[in-house]
């Protein structure tokens, strides 16, 4: 047990430092964060303390109120910190990929499966909802990228549903802060083994393309890439 104490002691300053950095980052975008957290904590504690005096148990309700005040402040802080982070990431290249990396268990994400010279990009996520293609960039240009990637998916995994989302604030687009929620709301149509099989087929395609002996420089005229991926076992 004694050997674990130094590691635990070293971890605590790390967590506190991370919380402090998160607070500073949030405060840059949300100037009222300190007042909001203080108000939430004081009001929560005050309500429980008042109830405690009314029922004759101020100490018990005061302790409970203090714990719940801390919990309520932590929840509010987490939500406002998340909102501030999304606000800073909005419009930045690769922001959607960062959200996909933290979408949760059950999803396998592959960033930048398609890209053009204007840095419009398409990311891919595979889960029980099927294949989700997430595009970020110019709404008109990414349509071409999405269409090409969907055709590729239909050739390789025709039995798996393919969804496409465009990140943005325009009509028909998904805001960055709502991307994770939108994906989690998609209907689950695949089983765990089917998700694994889909990932294996897509991974095999990636390995095949990366190992092809393509010549350097411009592609010779008339040369074509194979249209199909490896057949499913």
UniProtKB/TrEMBL annotation:
Disordered: region residues: 210-233
A Pfam cross-reference name: DUF4191
Name of the protein in question: Integral membrane protein
Transmembrane feature ranges: 33-53, 59-78
Top-level taxon of the source organism: Bacteria
Alphabetical list of InterPro entries matching this protein: DUF4191 (IPR025445)
Alphabetical keyword list: Membrane, Transmembrane, Transmembrane helix
């Amino acid at each position: 047990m004694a050997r674990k104490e130094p590691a635990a002691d070293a971890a605590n300053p790390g967590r506190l430092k991370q919380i402090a950095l998160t607070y500073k980052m949030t405060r840059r975008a949300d100037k009222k964060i300190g007042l909001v957290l203080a108000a939430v904590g004081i009001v929560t504690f005050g309500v429980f303390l008042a109830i405690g005096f009314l029922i004759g148990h101020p100490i018990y309700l005061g302790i409970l109120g203090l714990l719940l005040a801390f919990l309520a402040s932590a929840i509010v802080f987490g939500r406002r910190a998340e909102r501030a982070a999304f606000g800073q990431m909005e419009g930045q290249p690769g922001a959607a990929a960062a959200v996909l990396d933290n979408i949760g268990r059950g999803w396998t994400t592959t960033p930048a499966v398609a890209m053009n010279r204007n840095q419009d990009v398409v990311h891919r996520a595979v889960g029980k909802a099927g294949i989700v293609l997430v595009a970020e960039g110019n709404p008109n240009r990414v349509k071409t990228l999405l269409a090409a990637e969907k055709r590729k998916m239909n050739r390789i995994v025709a039995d798996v549903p393919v969804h496409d989302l465009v990140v943005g604030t325009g009509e028909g687009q998904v805001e960055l802060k709502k991307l994770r929620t939108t994906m989690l709301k998609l209907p689950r149509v695949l089983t765990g083994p089917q998700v694994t099989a889909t990932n294996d087929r897509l991974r095999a395609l990636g390995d095949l393309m990366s190992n092809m002996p393509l010549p350097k420089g411009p592609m010779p005229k008339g040369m074509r890439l194979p249209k199909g991926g490896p057949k499913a076992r």
